């Protein structure tokens, strides 16, 4: 839901940190459209026979499924959990469900090469979520995750199963710990780009601070 408290707080944070009004408008629009399409995907999957839970008990006031470790410094919310798949599909459950919207070019790459190759960041997110959700949803890492990609330009949908990659989850978890250790030690890690104009830096809430600090 676009109007959940966590989203409102997140949007407030984004508006606070993004100083260019054009960036704010773009980011909020992308965020809202992404969530509207995700809500549609949820309805369509349920209509196709997936017993898909996006909130505890599937109640509007039910909390999102998620995890929190390292004193809350590593945490996340999953888009959904499939409890039962349509008859005849043979889907292993419980299965993590992750949904992303993307432009036509990225969507075609995802269809052609799969999410692991075309969008490694999403694959890392899926692996980490499967690993950390295992304690609260036993079996979720044994079942391949279901990844849904929605083409924002044509409304086409792509679904694929993503087997759990334990090595990837471990590497990403180790990286998270490394970042926390560096932060606690006051150590500045390398930036991901050579310029603040890099796409991800332009939408990063910490951009201003990050590019002011000397390395
Ligand atoms: S601005 Fe954000 S995304 Fe870019 S290098 Fe800094 S912390 Fe990373």
Task: Indicate the topology.
Elements: H1 5-17, H2 21-47, E1 51-53, E2 66-69, E3 74-77, E4 80-84, E5 95-102, H3 104-113, H4 115-118, H5 120-133, E6 145-151, E7 157-162, H6 166-184, H7 199-202, H8 207-212
Helix pairs in contact: 5-6
Protein model, in words:
- The protein is an alpha+beta fold.
- The protein folds into two domains: 51-184, no CATH class; 185-215, no CATH class.
- The chain is 45% helix and 17% strand.
- The protein contains eight helices and seven strands.
- It has helices at 5-17, 21-47, 104-113, 115-118, 120-133, 166-184, 199-202, 207-212; strands spanning 51-53, 66-69, 74-77, 80-84, 95-102, 145-151, 157-162.
- The chain has a five-stranded mixed β-sheet with strand order 1-4-5-6-7, with helices on both faces. Strands 2-3 form a two-stranded antiparallel ribbon.
- A hairpin with a 5-residue loop joins strand 6 and strand 7 (157-162).
- The longest helix has 27 residues, at 21-47.
- The chain binds iron/sulfur cluster.
- Iron/sulfur cluster binds at residues 191-193, 200-201, 204, 206-207, 210.
DSSP E strands, number: 7
Classify the beta-strand content into a percent band: 15-25%
Assembly level:
single chain
User: Tell me about the biggest sheet?
Assistant: 5 strands, mixed
Question: Which small compounds were modeled alongside the protein?
Answer: iron/sulfur cluster
> Please, how many helices?
8
Low-confidence stretches: 1-18
Mean pLDDT over the full residue set: 88
Give the overall shape. globular
Strand order of the largest sheet: 1-4-5-6-7
Radius of gyration: 18 Å
As for the number of domains, it is: 2
Cα(first) to Cα(last) distance is: 40 Å
Q: Structural class per helix/strand content?
A: alpha+beta
Which percent range fits the helix content? 40-55%
* Series of secondary-structure elements, N-terminal to C-terminal: HHEEEEEHHHEEHHH
